[in-house]
Here is the input.
Amino acid sequence: MRDSFGRNINYLRISLTDRCNLRCKYCMPEEGVHKFSHEEMLSLEEVYEITKAFVDLGINKIRFTGGEPLTRKGIVDLISKVSKLKGVKDIAMTTNGILLKEYASDLKAAGLNRVNISLDTLDEEKYKTITRGGDLFRVLEAIEEAKRVGLTPIKINSVLIGGFNDDEIVSLVNFSKKEEIDLRFIELMPIGEAASWAEENFISNDLVLERVKGLIPIPREDISSPAVYYKLPNGKSKIGIINPISCKFCENCNRVRLTSKGQLKLCLHSNREIDIKGALRNGEDIKKLILDSIGEKEKSHHLEDGEYIKRNMNQIGG
Here is the structure.
């Protein structure tokens, strides 16, 4: 599928739930989220049907997200079905890692190729603080299990937060080097819950280049990737920098998002959504709706009426 700007849209990110077993301060409220009824949410059967329609139209790369996707019952069976769709080349998942050790082997057997794991700090108490109660050691054990079963390459996603983990940049890089896994620093985005304090805590990822000496730029293998990658001399792991705020990467955007309520988001930084779930349940031609929607994909992300988008990341899908 190509949008009106000639970009090949081949990547679908699917949020399976907006619920999570953590309460990360930049992602969701401390009290959690309003629980939607089953009727409001896409069933896994509907997720599969919509995914199949996207794959038939040319999507070949799929990522399951949340909330926390591993809190959604039936996820292993869903991945097994999606992995058998003709044309699917890559199935990945973004997870906080809390439940990953338990599911890793079954996920690999079902057809999941790789995982991204969210980890903003290597300090036990700071991890507990930013996640409002999470257990760092469960995540570290999950990383080892993911390596053991072959959910690789593993990528660690670290949101860079001023006054919180900017003093751990070197430690996180050394951790990734030791574990031979890739690390990506992501700028704090002023979305939903984080909008009220993102400006105060925002720091540019340029700080990574200042703190970690000797990083060597790596030519981009995938121009649609939002990350600019570097490597350390004699190091096997890659260090990625994602600057969604200070440096847009819209020109090569190849992705769209499906929320757990069945809304298609063409751009992360836009409040506009297309109701795929309603169309599906009304018996409408969702392939036509998808194609028409792709034709309207935004050229670049921008503030709408001077405001940031309202939804929290757990509602959109990471």
About this structure: The mean pLDDT is 90. The radius of gyration is 19 Å.
